[in-house]
Each structure stands twice: as structure tokens, then as C-alpha cells.
Write a structure and sequence with these properties.
599 residues, alpha+beta, 19 helices, 20 strands, 38% helix, disordered C terminus, phosphatidylinositol-4-phosphate phosphatase activity, EC 3.1.3.64, SAC_dom, transmembrane helix
Length: 599
């Protein structure tokens, strides 16, 4: 049986069945829209001539909502490039098709909830970007793939994939139970992939950057922080830089992930909510995390970029303490803590001071190495990774990861003979521009997925220096983040939980049983931000409208200014009730219970 997935399908739809026929194949996957049965049949002319027909490029999966199952198909794709002689694709558009022909059996309330679930599904599917390949396993690094057994490579793509990075695993569950339908199970990776053909000194090579976002503790910036008792952390991303040149192949892997403590930072309308840390056993979850990382990647250099003072400083002290006092031999021998106060060291736009960090970790980079093989023979192995974090694992983290990747790139291109010993990446102007822009794109896409906006500090990544225009752009993105984190990200978190199967819609929601989407917030609370807006409007009116200022005008100005302050204070006091909070996953909601404050 071939391990590849069917690349192009013809989708036929009738009133009672769906047919999916791979191009150049005589087999059909048939889905009964009434019984929901899925079977594989030989094409013997059972498709009616009246059936509608459409070319599709893969099956994302099946999701069960209030109105019943929905089939999700890939209707548009874009070629990213070729990796290891295999084509990599980006998902561009999908179609969500209901099994049920109508929703007349649903109550009006159920229809409203079902539409909300569909909107959540579409929101995740439209978040950039999902990637796939019909013939290449995108979930494993080059080094992991090299050391797999031959029988492993003969397994279906979804069966051998690293479950940490398969975003439609839950959606494929109805198909995966039948081995004969393997050719229709297409695993999707969420994150960022760039494949570029580059030239230095007349030598052409392929430079690939892959960032794989984990499905565990996936979600949004403020609603998903820290670690869970199983040792998985929020915003965990594995980033791999690959070089293909003649018969050489190289790979350099880095990871990022939230600070591995049981902490949260719930939105409450404050610009920067105070991080909260619980009294639970941090050491057990912390140990599970790093033991799994050591087993998977080898030595860990934990680069922590958060502030030394203020609310972030207490997290730094707790993180450092856990590493230094760990009783586990595996952690003591294989985990090194490297702290660098990014904001303090690079204050006043002195980003050249990042070289201090690079010089400190250079011995670790050289000792951990990178993976390199030539003509099937391994020349070097990567024996550890840099695990970088800031508070969000976005902006500061991406800057440092790009600098580490540049260091490794210089080493491998010199080893391959593309660069001479005395040449620098920075002096190769054409490639340097490509390198900076791809890493900045990586920052933007990962940031959009987690925070809802592009990354901060990408002017440095793109140009190599901090600019005033970049500062203004960062201010704008920070304002948008504030709005989204407080007023939209609860729904975004619910959408991710629904897509990944952390919450599964139950039969009869909105009728025989309550639907968690039902709004329970007291609508009178919305009067508070309304009062702030009206009071502020009156302040401006008192300033701008009068032709001359009388004592009455000044008293009115003082009154409305005082009202603005009072209304703003009252709004902030009710901030936790006013923010848009997740409503679906119990595991998410448990994480949001307010533990004691840090320190």
C-alpha cells in the first residue's frame, strides 16, 4: 500500500451521498449523508449523472456540530516550493459541506449556535497558514526522518506523523479508523514555511525555513500561558532551517515555548495584566517538560529574554530557581539557563548589544552543532537545541532565533564550500535581504496566529537596525493587540479548542441541553465603557465647541473630566467581567482560575 495521499480528487455530491474519487484511480470513498457510514468502493458507475462535480485537493476532515457532521475539503492550494524533491503546498481555501440537506429540524436558537460554531471553524481555517504535502512528512525534522526505519516510512503519512504538529488530527478521526482510507487522510501543519532558491558566489542552493506550531496548549496570547500538569507549554513552536546543496543536506532546529511554570495572565482591561502564579507543584510539570525535550532533542540551552524587574522579573527568578535546584540528574546534566534582559540591554535602541548574548552562547552553539549528511552519509549530528522564550515567545524570541540561525548558516555554507572562510552572510547583499525578510515574515505569521497582529521589532529583523518608523508600527500593533486580547480573543480561543477537539459539540445543544455559547454576562456592565465614552466625548465638547470660556464652561469641563476618571476606574474594577472570555473548553477555563499573585 502506498504511503502517499491522493493529490487531486473529484468530489461528487448527491442528495444522499458524497463521492470522492482520486484522479487516475478506480476507487471511491463514499459517505452516506444519512447513516454517516464511510466506505471504500470500486468505481462501477454508481455515481449518478445528476451529481454535482468539483475538483478538490484534499480532505481536511469531518467535524460534528449541532446540525450534524460537516465535510471539510481543500478547494484551493498554492505551491510553496520543493523540499527533498517533494512538493510542499499551502492551504488557500476550503469548503465546509453539511451532511444534512437542511436545518429545519433545529430550533431557532440551535441554528444561531450552529452558525456560531461554523464561524469559529472558518476563523481557524482562514488563519494563516496551514501547509501540507502528499508525499513528504512535514511534521518531522530532517534528523528524525533520517533515523527512522524503512517500515516506518512505508506507513501512511497521518500514522507516522508527529502528533504534536498535526492540526487536523481530531478532524480525521472518522477516517483514520479505516486503514483502507489512508489515501484520503492528509495531515496539516500550522505555522510558517518558506522555500527559497538562493545563490551565493555563483552556487545555487535551497534554503528552507519551517516553523511547526504545537497543538498542545494551543490558543491565544493572554488566554493560554505557561505549562500544564502534563508538561506541555503554550505557544510551543519547533523551527527548522534546512539547506540543500548538491548531495549535501543540513538541518538546524530551535524551539520556543512559554515559561514552563504554572502561571497565567488573564485580560482585565489593563494594558499589561499582572502575571499570576499558582501554588501547585511546578517542579513536577517543569520536570516532565524538560525531560521530554531532552529525550526529543538532547541538551537544552534555555534562553530567557524577559525583564529582570517588574512583573516579568518574578517569573525569571522562579524559572531560574527551578533549573538550579532540580533534583533530576537528566535536567542537571542537560539543561542550561541563559538569562538576557533584552529590553534593559538594548534600551535606547542599542540593539548592537545583542552581540553580548551571541558571544555568550557561541560555545553552546558550536558544541550542540547541526545535522549534516552527504550522499546518505551522516557527517554531523545536532545534539541539542536552543529553547528561547520571552513573555509571549514572539517578538524578542524571533529576533534572537534569527541571529542564531544566521550563525549556523555561516558555518554550514562554509562547510559546504559555498562561502569562503573570510566571507560573511551580511556581505552577500541579495541573500541577506532574503534572509531578513523571511525571518521577519516568520515572526509576523507566528504572531498573527497567537496574538492576532503582526510581530513587533520586525524592522530590526528586516533591516538590521531599529527605526523610528518601526517604533510607530510597534505602537500601532500593540494597540491592536490590546483590543483583540480583551474583546475578541475569548472567541478565538474557543475556535481553536473546537478545531482541535478540546471541546466537542454534544447532541441536543440548545434544546435538550444547554449550549456553552449562551451569553451569561450581565448586559448592564456594558454601560460602564459606554459611560467612559460619553464622558470623554463631553470633555472634548467642552474644549472644542465654546467660542469663549466662561466659569460654567470650566466647571462643566472639570465635571466631565471627573466623570471620565470615575467611569474609567469603575470599568477597570469590572475588567475581568467585561473582557471576552473563552466559554467552551473546561481545560481552558480551569487554567483561568485566579491563583495567588506572583511573589
Amino acid at each position: 500500500m502506498s504511503a502517499d495521499v491522493a493529490e487531486e480528487l473529484v468530489f461528487y455530491c448527491t442528495d444522499d451521498r458524497f463521492f470522492l474519487e482520486p484522479v487516475n484511480s478506480k476507487q471511491l470513498m463514499v459517505i452516506d449523508r444519512v447513516s454517516h457510514e464511510i466506505v471504500l468502493e470500486e468505481n462501477s458507475g454508481q455515481i449518478p449523472f445528476s451529481a454535482s462535480r468539483k475538483t478538490v485537493y484534499g480532505v481536511v476532515g469531518i467535524i460534528h456540530l449541532i446540525a450534524g457532521p460537516y465535510l471539510i475539503l481543500i478547494t484551493k492550494r498554492m505551491k510553496v516550493g520543493t523540499l527533498n524533491k517533494q512538493t510542499i503546498w499551502r492551504l488557500e481555501d476550503t469548503q465546509v459541506i453539511p451532511y444534512a440537506r437542511s436545518t429545519t429540524s433545529l430550533t431557532a436558537e440551535q441554528k444561531v449556535y450552529n452558525d456560531k460554531y461554523l464561524a469559529m471553524l472558518q476563523q481557524v481555517l482562514s488563519t494563516p497558514y496551514f501547509y501540507f504535502s502528499y508525499t513528504h512528512d512535514l511534521t518531522h525534522t530532517l534528523q528524525r526522518l533520517y533515523y527512522t526505519a524503512e517500515d516506518f516510512l512505508q506507513m501512511a503519512l497521518h500514522e507516522r506523523a508527529d502528533v504534536r504538529f498535526v492540526w487536523n488530527q481530531h478532524l480525521l478521526r472518522d477516517l483514520c479508523v479505516q486503514p483502507e482510507i489512508n489515501a484520503f487522510c492528509l495531515p496539516l501543519v500550522h505555522g510558517f514555511i518558506s522555500i527559497k532558491q538562493c545563490s551565493i558566489n555563483g552556487e545555487w542552493f535551497t534554503w528552507t525555513l519551517i516553523s511547526r506550531r504545537s497543538v498542545y496548549r494551543a490558543g491565544t496570547r493572554m488566554w493560554m500561558r505557561g505549562i500544564d500538569p502534563e508538561g506541555t507549554v503554550a505557544n510551543y513552536v519547533e523551527t527548522e532551517q534546512i539547506i540543500e546543496f548538491r548531495d549535501f543536506r543540513s538541518s538546524f532546529v530551535q524551539t520556543r515555548g512559554s515559561i514552563p511554570l504554572l502561571w497565567s495572565q488573564e485580560p482585565n482591561l489593563k494594558y499589561k495584566p499582572e502575571p499570576l502564579i499558582g501554588n501547585a507543584n511546578h517542579e513536577e510539570a517543569f520536570t516532565r517538560h524538560f525531560e521530554s525535550q531532552v529525550l526529543c532533542y538532547g541538551k537544552q540551552v534555555a534562553i530567557n529574554l524577559i525583564d529582570q524587574k517588574g512583573v516579568e522579573g518574578k517569573l525569571h527568578e522562579a524559572f531560574k530557581h527551578l533549573i538550579e535546584t532540580s533534583v533530576r540528574q537528566m535536567i542537571r546534566d542537560n539543561v542550561k539557563y541563559e538569562y538576557f534582559d533584552f529590553h534593559h540591554e538594548c534600551r535606547k535602541m542599542r540593539w548592537d548589544r545583542l552581540s553580548i548574548l551571541m558571544d555568550r552562547v557561541e560555545p553552546d552553539r558550536e558544541s550542540m552543532g547541526y545535522f549534516l549528511f552527504r550522499d546518505g552519509v551522516v557527517l554531523l549530528e545536532q545534539e541539542g537545541v536552543f529553547r528561547t522564550n520571552c513573555i509571549d515567545c514572539l517578538d524578542r524570541t524571533n529576533v534572537v532565533q534569527s541571529m542564531l540561525a544566521r550563525k549556523q548558516l555561516k558555518s554550514v555554507l562554509t562547510r559546504m564550500g559555498i562561502l569562503s572562510e573570510n566571507q560573511k552572510i551580511e556581505d552577500q547583499f541579495s541573500f541577506e535581504g532574503t534572509f531578513k525578510n523571511v525571518w521577519a515574515d516568520n515572526a509576523d505569521i507566528l504572531s498573527i496566529q497567537y496574538s492576532g497582529t503582526g510581530a513587533l521589532k520586525t524592522d530590526f529583523t528586516r533591516t538590521g537596525k531599529r527605526t523610528h518608523v518601526g517604533l510607530l508600527k510597534d505602537g500601532w500593533n500593540s494597540a491592536i493587540r490590546y483590543i483583540k486580547n480583551n474583546f475578541f480573543d475569548g472567541d478565538r480561543q474557543d475556535a481553536v479548542d473546537l478545531f482541535l477537539g478540546k471541546y466537542q459539540v454534544e447532541t441536543g445543544e440548545g434544546a435538550s441541553r444547554s449550549c456553552p455559547l449562551k451569553e451569561h454576562r450581565d448586559s448592564r456592565l456594558l454601560l460602564l465603557p459606554g459611560a467612559v465614552f460619553i464622558s470623554l466625548l463631553m470633555v472634548f465638547a467642552c474644549i472644542l465647541l465654546p467660542s469663549d470660556y466662561t466659569s460654567f464652561t470650566l466647571l462643566s469641563l472639570l465635571f466631565w473630566a471627573a466623570m471620565t476618571v470615575v467611569a474609567a476606574i469603575a470599568t477597570l474594577m469590572q475588567g475581568r467581567q467585561l473582557v471576552n472570555a473563552p466559554r467552551l473548553s473546561l481545560s481552558t477555563l480551569k487554567n483561568l482560575t485566579a491563583p495567588p499573585r506572583v511573589g
